[in-house]
């Protein structure tokens, strides 16, 4: 549901703004690198290809394009030798938003060469069921020219970011929460049992877990 995608996306932008404030370009933002706590908090993971911009650098120029092909921007797909690093993360965040909002990708290809060819043109369409202002946000984040591509502040001030879509359906449990019948089929119970403290509520007989949020206050 869009209201759920909105919640995840706003947390992604919060995390991305923090990374950029620390002069870190992630370079591999994608759904697979976004983790959720049991409380529904989003965490950005896998900084294996991240690059730290030198403290004395004049700007955020990067020279190496790394990361998952489907989430790479046109400047990398077209083989440019240097490009604005932070706008790489804006593009991949736009592809991520497109994916979690529609279930598909804006650019596809039978192989990496065809995929990069399609990304390089920057031509894509947004499904008809996606309406304004989300459509405008996607087009702004996926502009071919990194200079005109939305910045984090452009995103923060955008109408779709500022107003959460109405809740017209139930939230999809990702991952399944403790009360969900599918929860026992995941690795989560094992992780909780081995890595979280727990205690029983004598009055109700329920087991309550002390989560990371509780430990950090």
From TrEMBL:
Cofactor(s) required for function per UniProt: Mg(2+); Mn(2+)
Keyword Transferase: yes
UniProt entry keywords in alphabetical sequence: ATP-binding, Kinase, Magnesium, Manganese, Metal-binding, Nucleotide-binding, Serine/threonine-protein kinase, Transferase
Catalytic activity: L-seryl-[protein] + ATP = O-phospho-L-seryl-[protein] + ADP + H(+); L-threonyl-[protein] + ATP = O-phospho-L-threonyl-[protein] + ADP + H(+)
Domain of life, source organism: Eukaryota
SUPFAM superfamilies according to UniProt: Protein kinase-like (PK-like) (SSF56112)
GO MF, one annotated term: metal ion binding
Transmembrane segments: none
A biological-process GO annotation: intracellular signal transduction
Enzyme Commission number: 2.7.11.1
Domain Protein kinase: from-to ranges: 1-161
Signal peptide interval: none
Family stated for the protein in its record: Belongs to the protein kinase superfamily. CAMK Ser/Thr protein kinase family. LKB1 subfamily.
Protein name as annotated: non-specific serine/threonine protein kinase
Organism: Oryctes borbonicus
């Amino acid at each position: 549901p869009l209201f759920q995608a909105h919640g995840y996306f706003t947390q992604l932008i919060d995390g991305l703004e923090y990374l950029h404030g620390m002069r870190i370009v992630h370079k591999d933002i994608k759904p697979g690198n976004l983790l959720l706590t049991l409380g529904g908090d989003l965490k950005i993971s896998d900084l294996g290809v991240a690059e730290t911009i030198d403290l004395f650098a004049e700007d955020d120029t990067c020279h190496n394009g790394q990361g998952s092909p489907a989430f790479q921007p046109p400047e990398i797909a077209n083989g440019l030798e240097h490009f604005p690093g932070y706008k790489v993360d804006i593009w991949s965040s736009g592809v991520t938003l497109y994916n979690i909002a529609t279930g598909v990708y804006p650019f596809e290809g039978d192989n990496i060469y065809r995929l990069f060819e399609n990304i390089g043109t920057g031509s894509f369409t947004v499904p008809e069921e996606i309406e304004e202002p989300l459509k405008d946000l996607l087009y702004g984040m996926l502009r071919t020219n990194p200079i005109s591509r939305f910045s984090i502040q452009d995103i923060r001030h955008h109408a779709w970011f500022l107003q959460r879509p109405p809740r017209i359906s139930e939230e999809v449990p990702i991952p399944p929460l403790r009360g969900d019948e599918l929860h026992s089929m995941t690795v989560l119970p094992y992780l909780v049992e081995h890595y979280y403290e727990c205690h029983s509520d004598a009055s109700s007989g329920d087991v309550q877990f002390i989560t990371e949020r509780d430990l950090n206050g």
